[in-house]
Every structure is written in structure tokens, then in C-alpha cells.
Design a protein that fits this description.
The protein is an alpha/beta fold and 204 residues long. It has one domain (11-193). Helices cover 44% and strands 14% of the residues. The protein has a five-stranded mixed beta sheet, with helices on both faces.
């Protein structure tokens, strides 16, 4: 009798974003990297708003998944001290849960898009008007909707994922060195987690 065929169990990953921008971006990644993401069932979730209460509700509702990955825009958190306190408490609550992970970008995911073209640590209180103006120079007519916020459109506009990874890592190193809480993106960690980018050997 032959050995039974073992099938690899498919990982089910819930991805929680702050809005339609992140959902469109995630969906575009599923198309662009279908082979590398074949072991994942990525399930974008669209919350009603970007409140920490809504974020926690989606985390709790999706703990049945193998992983819950949260893509966080920090501008709304830092503008409201109450929300920021709740967010830090939420992160602390799941600090020992390796299956619930947070990936922050300040001020918002658009900085990660900008990093596909150029590096910056300029301080932005929020997306508009300065970061919006800078991004529009790279992606003419950019809007927070499909197709502008897709991986494919960024490449079409001359952006590069490897450049974004380098700039994202550089922003985190700079943030830690300068002890600042603005203009950074942890999206490279997200790409490491879903297997599109190799993890840095020096990552702790």
C-alpha cells in the first residue's frame, strides 16, 4: 500500500484595513502575486470607520483565522489622544499573540505609495494637502480609489516595490534612531509576513 498523500493545509489570513484604499491595494496584490499567495486565503475586511473600537471588533470577529493582519493609518490615532490611548491598549492586549499583527504607516497608506518613488521623512500632520500634492506629482490625478491605489497602477506610473521596501525599512531605522513618531511605514514587515519579501536577517 502506498503512502497516503499529504496535502498542505491552506492558511487563512484576515487582513484588516482602515478603508477602501487598503482594500483595493490588497486585492491588487492578490492578482499581482497569485503564485506567492497561493497558500493564503486573503480576506480583506472593510470597517465602517477607522475607530479603534471598530478595529477591535474586526480583530475579535476574525480570530478564527490563522493570522489577523492589521494595516493601520496613524494620522487618525495621533490626532485624537483618546483614540491613541485605546490603540496602544489594544496593541498591548495582543502583544503576546503572534497571530495578531499590526503594521503602521504615518500618516497613512499613501506614504507607502509615495515610497515606491522617493524617500522622505518630512512631517505631515495628515494626508492633505502636502503629502497629497507630493503623491500627485508621482501618480498624476491620484485619488483614494481604484485603479490609482493598486500595485499595478503604481508600477505603470514608474513606481517600484523594491524601492518602497528599501524606503520603508529606512524610515523605520530613522524613526528609531531619531525617536520620532511621524513619517514611517512598516509595510515591509507586512510583505515579509505574507511571503512576498524575504525577511531581513538583522530583524529582531
Amino acid at each position: 500500500m502506498g503512502k497516503p498523500i499529504q496535502t498542505q493545509e491552506r492558511k487563512r489570513v484576515a487582513i484588516i484595513g482602515d478603508g477602501k484604499t487598503e482594500i483595493a491595494y490588497i486585492e491588487s496584490l492578490k492578482i499581482a502575486f497569485r503564485e506567492k499567495l497561493s497558500d493564503y486565503s486573503l480576506q480583506p475586511r472593510l470597517p465602517k470607520d477607522s475607530s479603534v473600537k471598530e478595529l477591535e471588533r474586526f480583530i475579535v470577529n476574525n480570530l478564527v483565522y490563522d493570522k489577523v493582519l492589521c494595516i493601520i493609518d496613524m494620522d487618525t490615532k495621533l490626532r485624537d489622544q483618546v483614540e491613541m490611548t485605546k490603540y496602544m491598549q489594544l496593541k498591548y492586549k495582543y502583544r503576546k499573540n503572534k497571530n495578531v499583527l499590526f503594521y503602521e504607516t504615518h500618516p497613512c497608506t499613501e506614504l507607502w505609495f509615495y515610497y515606491h518613488f522617493q524617500y522622505t521623512t518630512a512631517e505631515f500632520g495628515k494626508y492633505e494637502p502636502d503629502l497629497k500634492r507630493m503623491l500627485e506629482k508621482k501618480i498624476p490625478g491620484y485619488e483614494k480609489k481604484h485603479p490609482y491605489c493598486t500595485h499595478q497602477y503604481m508600477l505603470k506610473s514608474g513606481g517600484n516595490l523594491e524601492t518602497a521596501i528599501i524606503n520603508g525599512r529606512k524610515s523605520i531605522d530613522s524613526k528609531n534612531t531619531d525617536d520620532r513618531n511621524y513619517t514611517y511605514s512598516e509595510m515591509d514587515h507586512f510583505f515579509e509576513e505574507i511571503g512576498i519579501v524575504e525577511k531581513r536577517e538583522d530583524k529582531k
